[in-house]
Design brief:
- The protein has a four-stranded antiparallel β-sheet with strand order 1-2-4-3, with helices on one face.
- The protein has one domain: NADH Oxidase (3-Layer(aba) Sandwich).
- The longest helix is centred in the middle third of the chain and has 24 residues.
- Helix 4 runs antiparallel to helix 5.
- The protein contains seven helices and four strands; from the N terminus they run H-H-H-E-H-H-E-H-E-H-E.
- The protein has 196 residues and is of the alpha+beta class.
- Flavin mononucleotide binds next to strand 3.
Length: 196
Amino acid sequence: MTDRQAMSESPVSPVDVATLIKGRRTVDHFVAGEVPPRETIIAAIDAARWAPNHHLTQPWRFSLLGPKAQQAVVALNTGLLQASRGAEVAEAKRERWSQMPGWLVVTCEKTNETQRAAEDYAACACAIQNLSLYLHAAGIGTKWASGAITREPDFLEIAGADPAREYAVGLIWYGYPKRRPRSQRVALETIIRKCE
Ligand SMILES: Cc1cc2nc3c(=O)[nH]c(=O)nc-3n(C[C@H](O)[C@H](O)[C@H](O)COP(=O)(O)O)c2cc1C
Protein backbone atom coordinates (compact mmCIF):
# COMPACT_ATOMS: atom_id res chain seq x y z
CA MET A 1 0.00 0.00 0.00
CA THR A 2 1.31 3.46 -0.87
CA ASP A 3 1.44 6.31 1.69
CA ARG A 4 -1.37 8.10 -0.12
CA GLN A 5 -3.59 5.04 0.03
CA ALA A 6 -2.89 4.72 3.74
CA MET A 7 -3.80 8.39 4.22
CA SER A 8 -7.09 7.95 2.35
CA GLU A 9 -7.98 5.11 4.71
CA SER A 10 -8.97 3.00 1.72
CA PRO A 11 -8.94 -0.68 2.72
CA VAL A 12 -8.72 -1.86 -0.87
CA SER A 13 -6.39 -1.09 -3.73
CA PRO A 14 -7.56 0.82 -6.81
CA VAL A 15 -6.70 -2.22 -8.91
CA ASP A 16 -8.99 -4.41 -6.79
CA VAL A 17 -11.79 -1.87 -7.12
CA ALA A 18 -11.38 -1.72 -10.90
CA THR A 19 -11.30 -5.51 -11.10
CA LEU A 20 -14.54 -5.73 -9.14
CA ILE A 21 -16.25 -3.06 -11.25
CA LYS A 22 -15.10 -4.53 -14.54
CA GLY A 23 -16.02 -8.06 -13.48
CA ARG A 24 -19.67 -7.25 -12.74
CA ARG A 25 -21.99 -8.30 -15.54
CA THR A 26 -25.71 -8.20 -16.08
CA VAL A 27 -26.69 -11.80 -15.44
CA ASP A 28 -29.43 -13.32 -17.60
CA HIS A 29 -29.51 -16.86 -16.30
CA PHE A 30 -29.49 -17.85 -12.66
CA VAL A 31 -29.23 -21.20 -10.94
CA ALA A 32 -32.89 -22.14 -10.42
CA GLY A 33 -34.25 -22.54 -6.91
CA GLU A 34 -31.20 -21.17 -5.08
CA VAL A 35 -32.07 -17.93 -3.35
CA PRO A 36 -29.12 -16.05 -1.80
CA PRO A 37 -29.35 -15.45 1.98
CA ARG A 38 -31.53 -12.57 3.13
CA GLU A 39 -28.74 -11.16 5.34
CA THR A 40 -26.44 -10.79 2.31
CA ILE A 41 -29.15 -8.82 0.51
CA ILE A 42 -29.69 -6.60 3.56
CA ALA A 43 -25.93 -5.99 3.74
CA ALA A 44 -25.99 -5.06 0.03
CA ILE A 45 -28.82 -2.58 0.67
CA ASP A 46 -26.81 -1.14 3.54
CA ALA A 47 -23.93 -0.58 1.10
CA ALA A 48 -26.33 0.74 -1.55
CA ARG A 49 -27.61 3.57 0.66
CA TRP A 50 -24.12 5.04 1.02
CA ALA A 51 -24.38 6.20 -2.58
CA PRO A 52 -23.95 9.91 -3.18
CA ASN A 53 -27.27 11.78 -3.06
CA HIS A 54 -27.57 15.54 -3.44
CA HIS A 55 -28.93 17.35 -0.37
CA LEU A 56 -29.01 13.95 1.35
CA THR A 57 -32.49 13.33 -0.02
CA GLN A 58 -31.99 9.55 0.32
CA PRO A 59 -34.80 9.14 -2.21
CA TRP A 60 -34.61 5.33 -2.42
CA ARG A 61 -36.68 2.51 -1.00
CA PHE A 62 -35.90 -1.18 -1.44
CA SER A 63 -38.75 -3.68 -1.61
CA LEU A 64 -37.83 -7.30 -1.01
CA LEU A 65 -40.41 -9.41 -2.82
CA GLY A 66 -41.41 -12.72 -1.28
CA PRO A 67 -43.03 -15.63 -3.19
CA LYS A 68 -46.56 -14.16 -3.13
CA ALA A 69 -45.43 -10.79 -4.45
CA GLN A 70 -43.22 -12.46 -7.06
CA GLN A 71 -46.15 -14.50 -8.33
CA ALA A 72 -48.30 -11.38 -8.46
CA VAL A 73 -45.68 -9.60 -10.61
CA VAL A 74 -45.38 -12.61 -12.92
CA ALA A 75 -49.18 -12.73 -13.30
CA LEU A 76 -49.34 -8.97 -13.96
CA ASN A 77 -46.61 -9.22 -16.58
CA THR A 78 -48.24 -12.23 -18.24
CA GLY A 79 -51.53 -10.34 -18.50
CA LEU A 80 -49.86 -7.28 -19.98
CA LEU A 81 -47.96 -9.36 -22.53
CA GLN A 82 -51.01 -11.38 -23.51
CA ALA A 83 -52.72 -8.14 -24.44
CA SER A 84 -49.77 -6.52 -26.21
CA ARG A 85 -47.81 -9.40 -27.77
CA GLY A 86 -49.97 -12.50 -27.63
CA ALA A 87 -50.24 -15.72 -25.66
CA GLU A 88 -47.03 -17.37 -26.87
CA VAL A 89 -44.72 -14.52 -25.84
CA ALA A 90 -46.63 -14.15 -22.57
CA GLU A 91 -46.23 -17.84 -21.73
CA ALA A 92 -42.49 -17.83 -22.56
CA LYS A 93 -41.96 -14.84 -20.23
CA ARG A 94 -44.11 -16.40 -17.53
CA GLU A 95 -41.91 -19.47 -17.57
CA ARG A 96 -38.69 -17.46 -17.54
CA TRP A 97 -39.76 -15.01 -14.85
CA SER A 98 -41.07 -17.83 -12.64
CA GLN A 99 -37.52 -19.13 -12.42
CA MET A 100 -35.92 -15.89 -11.23
CA PRO A 101 -34.62 -16.63 -7.72
CA GLY A 102 -34.36 -13.24 -5.98
CA TRP A 103 -36.57 -10.20 -6.49
CA LEU A 104 -35.95 -6.64 -5.36
CA VAL A 105 -37.61 -3.40 -6.46
CA VAL A 106 -35.87 -0.06 -6.08
CA THR A 107 -38.13 2.96 -6.03
CA CYS A 108 -37.42 6.68 -6.01
CA GLU A 109 -39.41 9.43 -4.35
CA LYS A 110 -41.23 11.68 -6.84
CA THR A 111 -40.74 15.43 -6.85
CA ASN A 112 -42.01 18.29 -9.02
CA GLU A 113 -38.59 19.96 -9.03
CA THR A 114 -36.90 19.05 -12.33
CA GLN A 115 -33.31 19.25 -11.09
CA ARG A 116 -34.04 17.35 -7.92
CA ALA A 117 -35.86 14.66 -9.89
CA ALA A 118 -32.83 14.12 -12.13
CA GLU A 119 -30.46 14.09 -9.19
CA ASP A 120 -32.61 11.70 -7.19
CA TYR A 121 -32.80 9.30 -10.12
CA ALA A 122 -29.00 9.54 -10.46
CA ALA A 123 -28.62 8.80 -6.75
CA CYS A 124 -30.84 5.72 -7.05
CA ALA A 125 -28.80 4.52 -10.02
CA CYS A 126 -25.63 4.92 -7.95
CA ALA A 127 -27.29 2.96 -5.14
CA ILE A 128 -28.19 0.13 -7.52
CA GLN A 129 -24.60 0.03 -8.74
CA ASN A 130 -23.36 -0.16 -5.13
CA LEU A 131 -25.78 -3.00 -4.48
CA SER A 132 -24.77 -4.84 -7.64
CA LEU A 133 -21.07 -4.53 -6.87
CA TYR A 134 -21.53 -5.72 -3.29
CA LEU A 135 -23.49 -8.74 -4.49
CA HIS A 136 -21.00 -9.42 -7.28
CA ALA A 137 -18.23 -9.50 -4.65
CA ALA A 138 -20.38 -12.03 -2.74
CA GLY A 139 -20.69 -14.24 -5.85
CA ILE A 140 -24.26 -13.13 -6.54
CA GLY A 141 -25.30 -11.84 -9.95
CA THR A 142 -27.92 -9.20 -10.68
CA LYS A 143 -30.06 -8.05 -13.56
CA TRP A 144 -31.55 -4.57 -13.58
CA ALA A 145 -34.83 -4.56 -15.51
CA SER A 146 -36.75 -1.42 -16.41
CA GLY A 147 -39.41 -2.78 -18.75
CA ALA A 148 -42.96 -1.45 -19.17
CA ILE A 149 -44.26 -3.38 -16.16
CA THR A 150 -42.15 -1.25 -13.81
CA ARG A 151 -44.23 1.78 -14.83
CA GLU A 152 -47.52 0.10 -13.90
CA PRO A 153 -49.19 1.41 -10.72
CA ASP A 154 -50.18 -2.18 -9.85
CA PHE A 155 -46.52 -3.18 -9.97
CA LEU A 156 -45.65 -0.49 -7.44
CA GLU A 157 -48.50 -1.54 -5.19
CA ILE A 158 -47.33 -5.16 -5.22
CA ALA A 159 -43.94 -3.78 -4.15
CA GLY A 160 -45.58 -1.95 -1.25
CA ALA A 161 -44.95 1.45 -2.84
CA ASP A 162 -47.33 4.36 -3.26
CA PRO A 163 -47.58 5.15 -7.00
CA ALA A 164 -48.58 8.73 -6.18
CA ARG A 165 -45.33 9.36 -4.31
CA GLU A 166 -42.80 6.96 -5.84
CA TYR A 167 -41.79 5.44 -9.15
CA ALA A 168 -39.77 2.32 -9.86
CA VAL A 169 -36.15 2.79 -10.91
CA GLY A 170 -35.68 -0.90 -11.45
CA LEU A 171 -36.70 -4.42 -10.79
CA ILE A 172 -33.54 -6.19 -9.73
CA TRP A 173 -33.32 -9.94 -10.05
CA TYR A 174 -30.51 -11.62 -8.17
CA GLY A 175 -29.15 -15.10 -7.75
CA TYR A 176 -26.18 -17.32 -8.47
CA PRO A 177 -25.09 -16.92 -12.10
CA LYS A 178 -25.46 -19.99 -14.30
CA ARG A 179 -22.84 -18.67 -16.69
CA ARG A 180 -20.64 -15.64 -16.97
CA PRO A 181 -22.06 -13.27 -19.58
CA ARG A 182 -19.92 -11.08 -21.79
CA SER A 183 -20.19 -7.39 -22.42
CA GLN A 184 -18.03 -4.83 -24.13
CA ARG A 185 -17.21 -1.16 -24.20
CA VAL A 186 -15.89 1.10 -26.95
CA ALA A 187 -12.18 1.95 -26.88
CA LEU A 188 -11.19 4.24 -24.01
CA GLU A 189 -9.69 6.91 -26.29
CA THR A 190 -13.04 7.40 -28.01
CA ILE A 191 -14.75 8.61 -24.84
CA ILE A 192 -12.06 10.88 -23.42
CA ARG A 193 -11.72 14.51 -24.45
CA LYS A 194 -8.55 16.24 -23.44
CA CYS A 195 -9.26 19.96 -23.18
CA GLU A 196 -6.18 22.16 -22.89
C1 LIG B 1 -31.24 2.05 -16.26
C2 LIG B 1 -30.99 0.64 -16.77
C3 LIG B 1 -32.06 -0.11 -17.21
C4 LIG B 1 -31.86 -1.41 -17.69
N1 LIG B 1 -32.94 -2.15 -18.10
C5 LIG B 1 -32.76 -3.38 -18.62
C6 LIG B 1 -33.87 -4.14 -19.07
O1 LIG B 1 -35.03 -3.72 -18.96
N2 LIG B 1 -33.62 -5.36 -19.61
C7 LIG B 1 -32.34 -5.86 -19.71
O2 LIG B 1 -32.18 -6.94 -20.24
N3 LIG B 1 -31.27 -5.16 -19.26
C8 LIG B 1 -31.44 -3.94 -18.71
N4 LIG B 1 -30.37 -3.23 -18.24
C9 LIG B 1 -29.04 -3.85 -18.25
C10 LIG B 1 -28.27 -3.42 -19.49
O3 LIG B 1 -28.84 -3.99 -20.63
C11 LIG B 1 -26.80 -3.87 -19.30
O4 LIG B 1 -26.24 -3.11 -18.27
C12 LIG B 1 -25.99 -3.70 -20.59
O5 LIG B 1 -26.36 -4.65 -21.54
C13 LIG B 1 -24.50 -3.83 -20.34
O6 LIG B 1 -24.20 -5.09 -19.80
P1 LIG B 1 -23.36 -5.21 -18.45
O7 LIG B 1 -24.22 -4.67 -17.34
O8 LIG B 1 -23.08 -6.68 -18.28
O9 LIG B 1 -22.12 -4.43 -18.64
C14 LIG B 1 -30.54 -1.94 -17.74
C15 LIG B 1 -29.47 -1.16 -17.29
C16 LIG B 1 -29.68 0.10 -16.81
C17 LIG B 1 -28.51 0.92 -16.32
